[in-house]
């Protein structure tokens, strides 16, 4: 499992997850994200295009990141969710907690101010 970070338009962090999220792959990821949130980052998109599985521990990680972002006035959105991972998010009702979008561009659009010119 690897995570790739890139910033979009200066204030949206897009995290590309490659492989799976479980106990062994997520501890450093969580700490890095929490540090970024403490540093003022409020808009995060997790790109799941290459995410092949997520364990129950991985679901807890997503919830922890979501909670930290919310406490700081931010938000986490999930994009490009496929088959097994989508089924797990739906089964656990996490699809009702996270904004889940078909692609990164649509998730990014949701961060735009509601009164922004289209």
Task: Tell me the fraction of residues in β-strands, as a range.
Answer: 25-35%
What is the CATH homologous superfamily assignment? STAS domain
Q: Which class of secondary structure composition applies to the elements?
A: alpha/beta
Strand/helix succession = EEHEHEHEH
What do we call the CATH topology?
Transcription Regulator spoIIAA
Instruction: Give the end-to-end Cα distance, rounded to a whole number of Å.
Output: 37 Å
Radius of gyration: 13 Å
Instruction: Walk across the major sheet and give the strand order.
Output: 1-2-3-4-5
**pLDDT below 50 for ≥5 consecutive residues: which ranges?**
none
Number of strand elements: 5
- Give the proportion of residues in helices: 40-55%
Q: Biggest β-sheet: count, sense, barrel?
A: 5 strands, mixed
User: What is the second-level CATH architecture?
Assistant: 2-Layer Sandwich
How many individual domains? 1
Number of helices: 4
Written description of the protein model:
The chain is of the alpha/beta class and 118 residues long. It has a single domain (2-110), classed as STAS domain (Transcription Regulator spoIIAA), CATH 3.30.750. Helix content is 41%, strand content 31%. The protein contains 4 helices and 5 strands; from the N terminus they run E-E-H-E-H-E-H-E-H. The protein has helices spanning 23-38, 56-71, 83-91, 104-110; strands at 2-8, 12-21, 43-54, 75-79, 99-101. A 5-stranded mixed beta sheet has the order 1-2-3-4-5. The mean pLDDT is 84.
């Amino acid at each position: 499992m690897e995570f790739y970070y890139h910033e979009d338009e200066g204030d949206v962090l897009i995290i590309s997850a490659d492989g799976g999220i479980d106990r062994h792959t997520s501890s450093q990821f969580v700490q890095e994200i929490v540090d970024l949130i403490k540093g003022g980052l409020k808009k995060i998109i997790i790109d799941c295009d290459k995410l092949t599985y997520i364990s129950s521990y991985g679901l807890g990680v997503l919830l922890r990141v979501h909670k930290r972002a919310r406490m700081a006035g931010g938000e986490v959105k999930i994009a490009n969710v496929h088959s097994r991972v989508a089924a797990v998010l739906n089964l656990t009702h996490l699809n009702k907690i996270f904004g889940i979008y078909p692609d990164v561009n649509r998730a990014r659009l949701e961060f735009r101010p509601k009164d922004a010119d289209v």
